[in-house]
Predict the structure.
Amino acid sequence: MPQQYPEEFKKIVEQLAELKNTSELMMDLAYSSILLNSTELAEEVQRLEEYVDKLHTDFELRVLTSKFTNEEAKGLLGLIRLGVAAEKIADSAAQISEVILRGLEPHPVLKLIIKEADETITQVRVTKKSKLANKTLREAQIPEETGMWVLAIRRGEKCIRPKPETIIEPGDILIASGYAEGVEDLKKLASP
């Protein structure tokens, strides 16, 4: 991309990454809301969908109002299309979570798919006495200890997509996926 606009291009790429990451989180949370029958997670998906709608609009406006040459702008078409795809994924996640919010039973095929899957999703609350409390996700080594991967952390009213440097706080609810054998290990770590 153009050398004379590195900051502008960097912001476009950052917004696209945020769109992608948020839509991935939404899909994880939408399936989790069905598996755990959680209206809280389903509501979080709906909240994030509104956020993605605004972020997507801001992203497209930034691309459209940037001062790239015609030749440089051609390279941005792919980014716009990726943004549209991320927004469609977010919309799909919102539709999935509506099953829980409407009080409907998931389709029997969906229940069977979830039941037959090798991986499972669980949520655990971190207590004050937990070995995980006040450690970063990296320090906690949850995947190494349990085979489970933390998809999201519910902290109060917010649901966050954790990074390796995210500190796990007492009271956090970890939403994790992995093989069923790791669920009990994760529960023991979170709530000894």
Remarks:
- The chain has a mean pLDDT of 89.
- The two ends are 52 Å apart (CA to CA).
